[in-house]
What we know:
The structure is a single chain. The chain has helices at residues 2-5, 27-39, 93-111, 143-158, 194-198, 214-218, 265-289, 323-332, 334-349; strands at 6-8, 15-17, 73-75, 83-91, 118-126, 132-140, 168-174, 181-185, 199-201, 234-239, 242-246, 251-259, 295-303, 313-320, 357-365, 370-375. With 388 residues, it is an alpha+beta fold. It has a 12-stranded antiparallel sheet. Strands 1-2 form a two-stranded antiparallel ribbon. Helix 7 runs antiparallel to helix 9 and helix 8 crosses helix 9. The longest helix is centred in the C-terminal third of the chain and has 25 residues, at 265-289. The radius of gyration is 20 Å and the shape is globular.
Amino acid sequence: MSPVFCSIRLGRGAWNMCDRPSLSRWKAPLSRFRSLARSNPMESAIAPHLRCPRSRERRSADDFQPPFPAWTARGNTGSSQLVMGYFGVQWRGDAEGEKAKALLSELVRQLGTGVAARNVERAVFVDGAGCDNEVAIGYWPDEAAYQSWWQQHEAWWADPARENEGVGLYREIFLPRTTHLETLSSASDRLEGVGIMLGERSAEPIQEHGYWGGMRDRLPASQTEALASSGARKIGSETPRRRFVISHEGVALIRSGQDWSDVTGEELALYRDRIEPTLRAGMDFLRDEGLAIGCHFNRYMQVSTANGGKPCRSFGMSAWRDLAAMENWAEHHPTHKAIFGDFLQVVQALQGRLDLRLFHEVAVLQADAQILEYISCHDQTGMLNGAV
Length: 388
């Protein structure tokens, strides 16, 4: 589930749990997917040009057969580094809300000019301080494309007027190397997030899913790197209202979501009444108490239908001290176990026939692959959280 880091599509597709779920109680609904996986070809989640001899072992055996199919996005950009941009506004109350929405509309307009961002989406959430936020998300195929766009709009951001808008404004730019990025989708016919920009998916279902550790194993860099973190965040400022964060090595970033646009009837009722409330509770825990377990921040975001946005979609977006901290929460923490348990009960109730589509994208970032600027934002915003 969203930041539950699972991907599930049963009935007409796949169910993939980000990493080793306990399925002994659910053998009957899932047995047909195991036989399907054994009879159909698979490929590695790691693209052929990124494979190399492993010096670090996988968490699964070479002949592992996942119990159900899942896919990964493939790139056709020819780039070794992509760009993900999150541009946000923050406010309290209706009066500030009007200003914030006008600012966001301007940001969306900017994202569509020059070397325009691809797959621009808008999403809303309430942060840990009770402020409303709306974010425009855009992707670029390489750093050069982003820099060309930024040169056109840098003066607008640098203008001192941005500090006197009466609302918060921030940009979080992440530049993951393709060796440090992985995606996962439960559906073979629909791409999301960075996958839309990449434009393609694996020709066959992938092998590295359905066990704890699959997320790490899908990252090409995990073949030779520990993907550990080092250093600490530092806060700098140009003016009292304009702050930036110098981040550390090894930050793990995840965007993980669900699409219930095809879900109807009993499944929709179970999603709304059982799955979503438990998921929301887990997301609130990470937002409010995640620092203690290595989560720098967490946002549970609803995709906006403004400007042609897709309905019935939400996602969690969070940054972690390192991949190990994220994995530890997913495998061991009670909040994740509650989400996982409720979901499996729904799987059983529906006898494995679900139309819910899930996806995620995970990146492990170098310190210089993070550009983090916050203007007139409170101390719990994004990567400021816990570092001020």
